[in-house]
């Protein structure tokens, strides 16, 4: 059975919509980041801490993907920023069309930063461009330092690695230097921040990274005027 | 674009091969279990502890799936039982044909127990029957107690839930009773064991569960003679 051509068609259709989204994000100076990890690596917790740290006036919104539930959007709405759930109904990743559809009633010109929290999965989301400026992969210290070698595609395609749950390092057999070495084997020069959402370590570096990216997007937009 | 018929065809072809495998496992009295979880939930660690606990004479083998590396088979071969890696080359689950192909040079009549360690993923493997007697889902205490609600398909289809890494319970905000309640919401009466592969807790219950299943398979085979 020949499955490849159909998958190619699905992906090229996705790429087309993603390119349109990217153009709209650029025109409106919105930094869009796509957060990807295994289930339970701490994407929602990191976003909670991030939203909590931002001043109320910040022009930030969140789209959060899940297969079935609305739990994550409910967790994120508490911080007073727009947050919307995308339930995929079985599909193991978000695609560009879902993003496009869920942005329909939001005004991009009123945003500076859009977080997309993908479905918990290290495989499927790596093939689907969502028009983001950067993919960000999260890896928790409870998962094992071999994961970048086992799931190289997503580590190669992500600009930043966030190592999460570092407060658990004393209790787990996780060699954080080895994990970083493995990530950089797959993706030389990969940027990395180490974060504990519960203890607060590294959140400053994470927010600085976001700030830097936001500036870069705005400067690029100005240079194009 | 109409994707459903092709997926249906792929799945029904898989079901056909899985049914043949199930028949062969039954004829040869082999208990086959299919272990499924997120990346890093501790499938390989649990198998290491299991193989370590078994007497050398046990007729046990392991097929372990991964997208890219041979790491897991190398970890498991140390215990002196046959172990073979299946690398899927990008696919996020094992399928029945892969199992069939990798069993070709093993004699099923020489086995009592075959572990299949699926690719680390809570979504894709749930649709693919491998001819197993039981699916087993693992959930680590670092992942959050909401996972059964977010990934209901695999919790519904699995006979047993193994809650792993219980040694980390004092350090994580994980309500183990709530997790079990969520699992039983999705799958009423689901069997559950709590295990720490590093501390050893619960390994006895896990081995007893396997032993009970093995007996059930053999008794069923005898009653059919």
* Count of distinct strands of chain A: 7
First CA to last CA of chain A: what distance? 50 Å
Radius of gyration of chain A: 17 Å
Helix content of chain A: 40-55%
Q: Helix/strand-derived class of chain A?
A: alpha/beta
- Envelope shape of chain A: globular
- N-to-C SSE series of chain A? HEHEHEHEEHHEHEH
* Largest sheet entry of chain A: 7 strands, parallel
Structure description:
Chain A is α/β, with parallel strands linked by helices. In chain A, 41% of the residues lie in helices and 17% in strands. Chain A has helices spanning 4-27, 43-53, 71-77, 96-102, 147-150, 152-157, 176-186, 203-224; strands spanning 31-36, 60-66, 83-87, 113-117, 134-140, 160-164, 191-194. Chain A has a 7-stranded parallel beta sheet with strand order 3-2-4-1-5-6-7, sandwiched between helices. In chain A, β2, α3 and β3 (83-87) form a beta-alpha-beta unit. Chain A is globular, with a radius of gyration of 17 Å. The N and C termini of chain A lie far apart (50 Å). In chain A, 47% of the residues are buried.
